[in-house]
Amino acid sequence: MSKRKRDISRRQFLEGTGAVLAVASAGPALKVDLSAANPPVSDDVASGVPTTAIRLVVNGTGHRLDVEDRWTLAELLRDHLGLTGTKIGCDRGECGACTVLLDGKPVYSCSNLAVWADGREIQTVEGLAHGEQLDPLQQAFVEHDGPQCGFCTSGQLMSAKAVLNANPHATREQVRAGMTGNICRCSNYNRYVEAVLAAAATKNGAAPKSNSRRSTAAAKSSAEIRATNGRRSTADSTIGAGGAR
Fold first, then answer.
1. Closest CA to 85 of 45, 44, 133, 138
2. Which of 19, 93, 180, 203 would you label with 197, given CA atoms 20 to 30 Å apart?
3. Is the pTM of this model over 0.70?
4. CA distances from 113 to 64, 69, 158, 182 (A)
């Protein structure tokens, strides 16, 4: 048998218990002192975080504001200017959902700091339309069923806008190359390309060929459907007449 452990006396037990109670009673006082030394941090600016005063133009409107040096451009636009059309997808500069135009060039706003935009001009998807009038590019996206789930659409629009600003007569290959950095998880790439080409054709005063082919196909399909319905109606009438006899 193993040797029995030494028994603890009643005096030793009480002394140990008293020490534990003394430490526990000191805990709340220590917590209060720490709370007093660290006052609550405000929601707007975190305590001890460096800030910078910047000026920038967003969609034609000038802004002067203090920004935390750690804010991204996407955070500034969405959380502090209320321009939530700019979406945050991957938040690591890969998907393109957050694309905006910085001095006319497409950038990932999730990967650019807000302080870097000081003295510069930004255009977001909210700046495309003129009041209630959609931009021709937006209208082309609608007509060609570009948006599916819609989450990447604002980034796709801004990249497409940059393509047409740089080259109003962009070819299919140039459009594809210009929008390579935008991922569509619905895989609607062909429709986006068709929409951009249609917008370019409209802007240049030419009728988009894809629309003409699609319209012809739609008209042909409608005529075939009407003819089929007509044959069915004739057959139904004949059957009905035969049943009556």
1. 138
2. 93
3. no
4. 16, 7, 19, 20
